[in-house]
Amino acid sequence: MPTLRDRKEVNKYIHELHLVPDFHGRQENFNLLNNWAEEQKAKVIIINGIGGQGKSTLVGHWLKEQRTPHLAKIPVFYWSFYENPDLSEFDWELLDFAQRLIPLAERRKGVIQFPLIKAAQGKPLILVLDGLERLQRKTDSSLNRRVLEPGMQFFLNMWMRYQHQGLMVITSRFNLSQLTQCNGVFNLHLSSLSPSEGASLLSGLNVLGSDKLLAEYSARFHGHPLTLKIMAGIVSQYCNGNLAEFAAKQIISRDTHEKLAQSLGDLLHFYVQQFHQGQHELLGIISLFRRPLEIGALLGLIRGMESISNTSLANLDEETILKEVQELAADYLIEIIGGDKVICHPLIQSYFRHEFHLRGCRKEVAGFLQRGLRGERPRDIEEVRDLVNAVQLLCDEDDYPAAHQLCRTRLVEGGYGLDVFKHLPAIPEGLQCCLAFVGDDERQKKTEVLLGKGAAAVYLTSISLYNMKLGNISLAREWCSKGLDLCRTLQNERTYPLPLHEINDLEQALGNIRQAQKLINQDEEAD
Questions:
Q1: Using CA atoms, how far apart are residues 406 and 429, in angstroms rounded to an integer?
Q2: CA–CA gap between residue 97 and residue 115 (Å, rounded)
Q3: How big is the chain by its Cα radius of gyration, in Å?
Q4: How far apart are alpha carbons 231 and 221 in whole angstroms?
Q5: Most trustworthy range by pLDDT among 54-58, 104-108, 320-324, 360-364
Q6: Are β-strands 166-172 and 146-148 bridged in parallel, bridged antiparallel, or unpaired?
Q7: pLDDT for 422-457, tens place per residue?
Q8: Does residue 44 have a pLDDT over 50?
Q9: What is the distance, to the nearest Å, from the Cα of residue 122 to the centroid of all Cα atoms in its chain?
Q10: DSSP alpha helix (H) spans, 81-194
């Protein structure tokens, strides 16, 4: 057990604060914290948000840089349960801190029942409990879904019961239902960074690029600070910190998302360990949708799904499923929009689409998306996105023939020429659709085996054409080369997946003038 330390220093930062060099943004949050602490005399401030959202960093910079001059004079006790969840050690260090603030005469009288609260009755103090979710546990009760370890719960009860001048600041990924209705308790849900704040964060991490480009990539990752930090590391590793080069190489593709998901795996695994009563399957199904889904439609889908028949989700009634949806929203894993629609947090969506392996589920969701169209072919961009999502899900399920048939009947007219994507226009959606078939070597091999090399060549060269339309010339050349390599293997068979003049254009784009001339001669001979 630790020995009592020298009491000359009043502040006790038991663990290192989370600080970011050249920190920018969150000023509104800092103002709110100061207002609650100064003017509204809060007893407890609870800061919630999904993991990696920057709760610890916000508190760290508030304590060190953003407190008002008056608050900056108040003694601080800081403990991180991420670093040490041991309550006995926490209690010992807290006792030491309290005794530093209590006059020696009162300590000798031995009349102190709750030393910290007694100290707070005599003078202001700030107590920071960072990462309290480490002490929160789930129950099966719908009325009290999360409870604290008994020792911490008793301490919080005493803190709220007595009058004193202390302020407790708590960070947690989960709500504290025991405190939310109490007087003197204020709750701050930490939202994502704005594009400009995200740009400032990237700039502080030595990522080079225009303000517009930095803001664009912040928005692309939904302003999630931890994800932006990981992306900054990838840019530094592969592009010498130059975001423009990163964008040109299009590292921000399937491969990047997989790297981000892997890096964030430990963070998200924490949430998985907390799941119960079919929540894993429920969140997995929600993650398969790219845009908000009506809750009523979700319930109807679940009722008819054969793939979940052997899971605990299949045994839940609608009322219980709705409660589980509310709990996932309370834990910031999903978002309820307008009271009747639900969508997965973008960070969680990428992870669970990759990790959710319930066989047949993706095929059933793909069928659901197709049935939702108002006509045979999509009429607007949202319907296009639903069909592209269905194609992706079918490919993820390894049902490439069904995905290819869906493209030909609902998105493609005349074999080649993705008219829906061209006419709406929906170039990014067309790119994503083709990537579902040949986005990596494994997918390309499956497409060649199940659909033929000609179909694979169409998807490869289409990716090149879409990238050219999007201005990604370097990436267009790479995909163009892959497509033409496959096209050339078919030339001896006198069957071409593309018209010769299309192949000629691509050869010229690659600078292969002689090969382009050869194709022109072949075209003339064919005529």
A1: 15
A2: 9
A3: 29
A4: 9
A5: 360-364
A6: unpaired
A7: 766 788 888 999 999 999 999 999 999 999 988 898
A8: yes
A9: 44
A10: 87-101, 104-109, 115-122, 150-161
Highest mean pLDDT (candidates 204-213, 392-401, 411-420): 392-401
3 state SS of 138: strand
Class of residue 181 by CB neighbours under 10 A (exposed 0-12, middle 13-18, buried 19+): exposed
Task: Please tell me whether the peptide bond between 69 and the residue prior to it is cis, using omega within 30 degrees of 0.
Answer: no
- The closest of 278, 261, 254 to 347, measured between CA atoms, is 261
Contacts of 89 (CB under 8 A, 6+ apart): 1, 2
What pLDDT is stored for residue 6 in this prediction? Answer: 41
142 by DSSP, 3-state: which? coil
Return d(Cα 185, Cα 354) in angstroms, integer: 39
DSSP string for residues in 49-112: -STTSSHHHHHHHIIIIIS-HHHHTS-EEEEETTT---HHHHHHHHHHHHHHHS-HHHHHHT--
Q: How far apart (Å, rounded) are the C-alpha atoms in residues 447 and 438?
A: 7
The beta strand positions in 330-463, using DSSP E, are: 334-337, 341-344
Burial environment of residue 491 by CB neighbours within 10 A (0 to 12, 13 to 18, 19 or more): middle
Rounded to whole angstroms, the Cα distance separating 116 from 76 reads 12
Percent of the chain with pLDDT over 90: 31
> Is residue 310 packed enough to be buried (19+ CB in 10 Å), middle (13-18) or exposed (0-12)?
exposed
Neighbours of 355 (CB within 10 A): 15
How many other CB atoms are there within 10 angstroms of residue 345's CB atom?
23
Give DSSP secondary structure letters for 247-305: HHHT-TTHHHHHHHHHHTHHHHHHHHHT--TTHHHHHHHHHT-SS-EEHHHHHHHHHT-
Residue pointed to by tokens 């219980």: 320
Six-digit token string for 189: 């849900």
pLDDT, tens digit (0-9, with 9 covering 90-100), for 8-24: 468 899 999 988 776 77
Mean pLDDT of 398-405: 95
How far is the C-alpha of 51 from the C-alpha of 272, rounded, in Å? 13
Distance, CA of 123 to CA of 111 (rounded, Å): 18
The distance of Cα 89 from the centroid of its chain, to the nearest Å, equals: 34
| pTM of the complete model | 0.67
Average pLDDT across the chain, whole number: 81
* % of the chain exceeding 70 in pLDDT: 80
